[in-house]
Amino acid sequence: xxxxxxxxxSPNNRLGKERFHKSQHFDYSNGVPMLVGSEKPGIGGELxxxxxxxxxxxxxxxxxxxxxxxxxxxxxQVLCFEGYFQxxxxxxxxxxxxxxxxxxxxxxxxxxxxxxEPEYKNSGIPQGTLIRRQRIPLPPPNDDQFYSIxxxxxxxxxxxxxxxxxxxNCDPFTKNFLTKLGVRLNDPTTVPDDPxxxxxxxxxxxxxxxxxxxxxxxxxxxxxxxxxxxxxxxxWEDTETVFGDPRELIxxxxxxxxxxxxxxxxxxxxxxxxxxxxxxxxxxxKHTQTQIKQPGVLTNRTVLNVFASKNQGERYILDxxxxxxxxxxxxxxxxxxxGGEVNVWGRRVIISDCDNFTKDYYRFKYGxxxxxxxxxxxxxxxxxxxxxxxxxxxxxxxDSLSSCQGLLLKPPQKDxxxxxxxxxSGLNSNVLNFRAKMVTTxxxxxxxxxxxxxxxxxxxxxVFERPQKNSGVLGGKFLERGRVKKPGQELFKSQLSEYFAxxxxxxxxxxxxxxxxxxxxxxxxxxFNYMEQHAEEFPKANVxxxxxxxxSVPEEKQSEIRKFLSLSDxxxxxxxxxxxxxxxxxxxxxxxxxxxxLVLCRCFSESDKSxxxxxxxxxxxxxxxRKKHFEELPEMxxxxxxxxxxxxxxxxxxxxxxxxxxFQLPLPENLLRGLLSKFADSDEVDYHAFLAGINxxxxxxxxxxxxxxxxxxxxxxxxxxxxxxxxxxxSALLHDIFINVSNDGAPTATTSA
Length: 753
Fold this sequence. Notes:
Layout: E1 26-29, E2 32-35, H1 70-73, E3 78-88, E4 97-107, E5 112-117, E6 128-134, E7 156-160, E8 163-170, H2 172-180, H3 195-206, H4 219-225, E9 229-237, E10 246-254, E11 259-265, E12 279-282, E13 303-309, E14 313-318, E15 341-344, E16 347-354, H5 356-365, H6 397-402, H7 416-422, E17 431-438, H8 443-446, E18 449-455, E19 460-465, E20 476-482, E21 510-512, E22 517-523, H9 525-533, H10 543-551, H11 555-568, E23 575-577, H12 578-587, H13 594-603, H14 614-627, H15 633-643, E24 650-652, H16 653-662, H17 669-678, E25 684-686, H18 687-694, H19 706-710, E26 727-729, H20 730-743
Antiparallel strand pairs: 1-2, 3-4, 3-8, 4-5, 5-6, 7-8, 9-10, 9-16, 10-11, 11-12, 13-14, 15-16, 17-18, 17-22, 18-19, 19-20, 21-22, 23-26, 24-25
Helix pairs in contact: 10-20, 12-13, 14-17
């Protein structure tokens, strides 16, 4: 029943639509306006009445994955069909038609088709690609459409450009693909026989060649031994001729084809011309013929003349028995042995040695183990020494020496590996600092205090003098950084001078730096720790070596040592003052230096370090920043926040120190290191608390005294400070010296800390 045409009762076809455009049906073609959109849809893309849109490409079912374009989803995927077509041969007596097999390829990415015919030997017709890859239209009247995947099946005919092809079969991939698309495949069929092709096969089988060739299979030997060459070192004793001498040769035996090649080793300044080869690559016969063979004597085959007639010509047959063949023996790998002789066209060549590959080859194939080389020449004379001229005083000694080692002047090479390993890295300065005084009779110079720094990256030394009030001597740089020669060496000599090394500097040593004698009194904590951690490089800091020296003390002195220690410790606490033990050890005749005594007492003592107040350190830091008018703390806070990518409020100690150095924070090195250690927790610094503590504008600290500032003025302990070693655990020391050695002899230093 139809509804009346009343308001609200009629359906609205536009409900739910979003597209109302109209397709363009007119356009210019070669400058002529014409209708070009006969197949275009109506308003909103809807088909007109009676209109059907013909698909341009194959439509595949959508998979469960992402919607990829066809040129990506079906890239390098091709369907392969086997087929044939029948070709009429007019005007031929032996055949009326011809069956030509071919392969039809369908490319899934763009629905293109390619037809290829396999090439047959001596076919006489052009073969190969019959139809190049392209989209092929359907036969009329549907020639406005193209072949798609659904037009293919087995055991059916297809018309491609007026040629009828019969599809007989397909490969497994094509079968699986079509089956998944829902195509029901027909049963495969066979290709009909071609009468003319069968006739040609019968003729070829019945043919018997008059000159059958003998096949020598050398391909396997080539594939197994290609690029494998045996190398022998030989010599040719050419002393029988006038001005003859032994000639060194290198023989190469190629396993791929059993050929031999010989090169001559021509020594320099021998007067001989350099030739590319002594013997070109060829097979080497064992026996040299006295007379050269005539052309045609050595051939691969032998024929017999069985019939000769002037009218009917000549007839030959192949001599299968090879009755007249000339056999010639050539050298094989089994004939080449160490000490053996090789006849190289009348020249007696003796094999003296071979390389490692050749030894492994003979060891594996023939089981030979003796490869003793043949000595045919005297041992080479030692190279004469090249005496260097003495140093002339210009430039450095290394630079002058390098100018004598070659015509091209080159700068002396530096030890870059040592520089990279021992250069400053983070908080590790790799600089050994010693406090020293000048050894002199002058009362003024005797009271001067120096800091000798040894740089491990390049073995250079610098000397800095600490300024002292009312001393009358200006402090500062005393010796520029550089390598210092040891005293007592001749200036103009051929050998390089010896320079001070890190092992020459230790507490108690006296060094002469540019005719100035200095006695090393003490070292900083970093120097002691570095030398103790690298005890294999510094014998003076090796505890095992020091204990072995103490064990060499006679037994009567050992009893005196025990008696002295017991008297020095009336309370039997097991500890003794450092000065008392130092006087005892220095009095022993076992060759202990001041540095060794310090290292031994540090090992058996508990370090007593007074903790510096954090408030005092912050007050001193603010005093430094206030005097320098440093007001870049807000910029530092922004940089810290920028580097804190995880927004945790913490940065590593290395990054924090790098940022402080980038802003040129005017704080001494020891004060900055101490502040970072106070605000660090597991190598991460709370930069918010650090910046708030040194902010002298927003959080001013109380004023500090001048003596408090001097504590952080230099990276050194004051001269009148208390020693780092106070009490020494002598009981543990005696246990390691006298008891452990009697048990197992292994020194084990026990520390009371």
